[in-house]
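Readers outside the structure-tokenisation community will struggle with the description of the input data as it stands. I therefore recommend that a typical entry be quoted early in the introduction. An entry of this sort, consisting of the sequence and the corresponding backbone structure tokens, reads as follows:
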Amino acid sequence: MKQAAIGVVRSLRSFRSFRDGRVVALVLVVALGLVVLLAQGGLTRSAFTATVANRTNTAATAPYFTCTAAVAADASNALFAYRLTEATGATTAVDSSGKGANGTYQGSMTAATPSPNACKRDTGSSYVLNGSTSFVATPASVKNPTTFSEEVWFRTTVAGGLLIGFGSSQTAASGQHDRAVYLNTAGQLVFGAYNGTTQVVTSPSAYTDGKWHHVVATMSAASGMSLYADGALVASNAAYTTPENYTGYWRIGYDTVSGWPGQPANFYFTGSMRFAAVYTSVLTPTQVANHYAAGV
């Protein structure tokens, strides 16, 4: 800054012989511009530090900061909600919805805490399904659910297997089975119901990349069938409004999908899961997006 000022003075002295005020003004403008540029350059090279404080912890208490909180926000319409965070060897999948509908782990129950984990702001492990004996059975039968939403976080590299669905048997392969979300042989998500014929909607993309994904399927007479993946609608059909009429159980991780499009050879899901839930209402697009945002 000092050198720039000296330069301005020298420039003025060299122009004392000029009596044209316009020339002098021009020199002043140029000199002033030079000083400003140099000053800005100095500011650019200066170092600044700042500290941001969150003294009220508002982010941690936001409604959708965790998957637990997101599910709890809609728990009034939940049939059950399983965190699937129990320890290895556990037999009970605790219902966190407040409805007391605890599930039962079938076959091998193994827990692991991968990095990254789905719902990373929630404590606890993930449920590892071995692809041959692992699944969760729900405790009570339900008569012909026609309005519902089903969701689960999952991770796999294996194409095939039921993620979540409805069947006439509590633990064995069901004679009647629909309202199913499964992976086909191409790794795409399929949501299917049955009403004389199979009614399915299928995701364009595959989800067997070994990353965590969130899936939600909804159905009602008013809105038909919708399939969401990672918070976004990926397939729907408003004309598919009526599932098969029977009494059955919600199933997580295994049931038959025999006769369905792209059926895999193995009906058991192979991979990891967190936060499986079924609701007696249709989750809105905003609710689905909130549930997904809570887990990433």
Summary: DSSP finds four helices and 17 strands in the chain.
